[in-house]
Amino acid sequence: MPSSDVEAAAAGNGKQTVDAGAASSAVESRGTWWQAGFHMTTATLGPASLSLPYALRGLGWALGLAALTAVAAVTFYAYFLVSRVLDHCEAAGRRHARFRDLAADVLGSKWATCLVVTVQVAINVGISIGSILLAADCLELTYSRHAPNGSLKLYHFVIMVALVLAVLSQLPSLHSLRHINVGSLLVSIGYTTLVSAACICAGLSSDAPAKDYSLSTSRSERTFTAFLSVSILTSVFGNSILPEIQATLAPPAGGKMTKALVLSYSVFFLAFYFPAIAGYWAFGNQVRSNVMQSLLPADTGSSLAPAWMLGLAVVLILLQLIAIALVYLQVTYEMMERKLFAGGKAGRRSLLAPRVALRAAYVAALAFVAAMLPFFGEIQGVVGSVGYIPLDVVIPVVMYNVALAPRRRSPAYVANAAIIVAFVGLGAIGGVASVRKLVLNADRFKLFSNGRS
């Protein structure tokens, strides 16, 4: 049903308007605030937290923890503003179930197309590649412990992960993944706890590397690394589907998402700060972009933590990575299939083969890029700078200023303007720093190699 028809029907029946995206998607608006908190936690709390010690490495103890706290506060505030804008639209009779629909309503269709859709695609592609690469990296690390002279390389494990995703991603829709949320939350808490404990064991081990927390002596290197670290921190807190999560709340949703945010950020405090502090404390400026590489160093041939602890952590990380990749893949599939298969008169069965082929080809393309550029930490930095910073920080603030129109001299307007200026600058410089790091790594490593970042 076209959007105008939905609105007309709602107006005629005295009911709340729901956008066309919500009407066509499998969204059940019957959830509670704590269920929304679980969804929010699952969508945000991913294995990108394994890059947190690497982010602290580029900033040092004081500035690193301050930046982590500042990014947490700003992203919480930005998500709160998105929720306020959604509540404002709902009160006016327009309830949105997609970020791009909300942006089109508030900013106009051209803004939504140029900003939100483009950025969402960048995030979906970046997170999918990063998930495939990190999953393969964990498998390769485990394999190298049991077969140091084995013939399998990182790209072989990328292919294995891609095959699993190609099969599981044939599930019909994002709604069909709804049962993973609670399990994914428990898995996330489990592996972050295990990784933190493993880092503490490694730091206390006699085989641990000397702890050196000094920064680079080059001013330019320190500057680029610092901005790269901020981009990584932003990507860790990134969540591009808050409107989709709020759409699951039973109406009226006003105020419920704030409780969900408080719940999820309480979990983030434990899941992000502990591995960040433990990993940086244990390895200092020698920590790798994936802290699991530091716990299982290839040059020594022995792990720095109990084998059972690391093995269980790897299993949980793999499960979470598959869950995250499936979520972001489904969002991308919905966008592609709406364009390619919309308006087709053929039945669902006749579209099965082209959909299977399309999804398998997309996963294969992502796997090809992941195998070609094995630099997980720097990929996270690119996603944070060109994806999460604009979508999760800048655009929500702009939408709030447009939709709720605070007075220009009010504290809210001044704070929002300051956030826009600061994070546009951080995103631009962080993007340059991330691309620079990728170029440096691409020059140092061969394509399709066992790259170590």
From TrEMBL:
Subcellular location: Membrane
GO BP: amino acid transport
Record protein name field: Amino acid transporter transmembrane domain-containing protein
Keywords: Amino-acid transport, Membrane, Transmembrane, Transmembrane helix, Transport
Alphabetical list of InterPro entries matching this protein: AA_transpt_TM
Gene Ontology CC annotations of this record: membrane
Residues passing through the membrane, by range: 59-82, 102-134, 154-171, 183-205, 225-242, 262-283, 303-329, 356-376, 382-402, 414-435
Protein origin, superkingdom: Eukaryota
Primary localization class, coarse: membrane
Pfam families: Aa_trans (PF01490)
Amino acid transporter transmembrane domain mapped to chain residues: 30-432
